[in-house]
């Protein structure tokens, strides 16, 4: 399927998913991460979810990362479809952006080259690890700035589609995608 068709389809599926199912799936995903070979790293980048868009609640993953004494990096949308990355600390002040997504107002910036694991938001993914986001290009640009060894982990409420037919050569595939049912490795 084409990315635009997948966006429409999966946004509709999300819209019809209850908050209780999203809450349960978010806990299952966080617990599934414990079985993954990703815990030898220090710097973990994670998006703060939008409840309005019915995204996976990343709060349980953040709790898990804090419990393992990991450095947590969160994004802030900057001009020209870019992300800035800030260390999440006890003194980080969060403020909702225009889309209702909490972002750090200021803080300690972290270079993408220092980030070792990225939890990637997505709407859909395929069996080769290609993903469909919201179409703004924020994560495509960000992932291209990361170290080639950075582990990219998608978080999805739904299982993969067979193929995203209009994936581009510059699209950076995931290394893993975690769903409530399974961990996919690419």
Please explain how this structure is put together:
- With 186 residues, the chain is of the alpha/beta class.
- The protein has one domain (3-185): NagB/RpiA/CoA transferase-like (Rossmann fold).
- 24% of the residues lie in helices and 24% in strands.
- The chain has a seven-stranded mixed beta sheet with strand order 3-2-1-6-9-10-11, sandwiched between helices. A two-stranded antiparallel sheet has the order 4-5.
- β1, α3 and β2 (71-78) form a beta-alpha-beta unit.
- It is an enzyme of class 6 (ligase).
- Substrate binds at residue 55.
- InterPro entries: FTHF_cligase, FTHF_cligase-like_sf, NagB/RpiA_transferase-like.
- Keywords: ATP-binding, Ligase, Magnesium, Metal-binding, Nucleotide-binding.
List the helices and strands and how they pair.
Elements: H1 3-15, H2 19-33, E1 43-46, H3 59-67, E2 71-78, E3 82-87, E4 94-96, E5 102-104, E6 117-121, E7 124-125, E8 131-132, H4 138-145, E9 151-155, E10 176-178, E11 183-185
Parallel strand pairs: 1-2, 1-6, 6-9, 9-10
Antiparallel strand pairs: 2-3, 4-5, 7-8, 10-11
């Amino acid at each position: 399927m084409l990315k635009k068709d997948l966006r429409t389809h999966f946004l509709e599926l999300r819209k019809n998913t209850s908050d209780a199912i999203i809450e349960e799936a978010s806990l299952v995903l966080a617990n599934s991460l414990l079985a993954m070979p990703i815990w030898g790293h220090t710097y973990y980048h994670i998006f703060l979810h939008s409840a309005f868009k019915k995204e996976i609640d990343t709060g349980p993953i953040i709790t898990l990362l804090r419990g393992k004494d990991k450095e947590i990096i969160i994004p802030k949308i900057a001009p020209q479809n870019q992300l800035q990355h800030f260390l999440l600390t006890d003194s980080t002040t969060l403020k909702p952006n225009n889309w209702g997504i909490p972002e750090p107002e200021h803080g300690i910036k972290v270079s993408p080259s220092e980030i070792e694991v990225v939890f990637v938001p997505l709407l859909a993914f395929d069996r080769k690890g290609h993903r469909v986001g919201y179409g703004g290009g924020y994560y495509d640009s960000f992932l291209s700035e990361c170290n080639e060894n950075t582990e990219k982990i998608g978080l999805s409420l739904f299982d993969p589609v067979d193929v995203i037919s209009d994936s581009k050569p510059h699209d950076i595939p995931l290394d893993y995608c975690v769903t409530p049912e399974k961990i996919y490795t690419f």
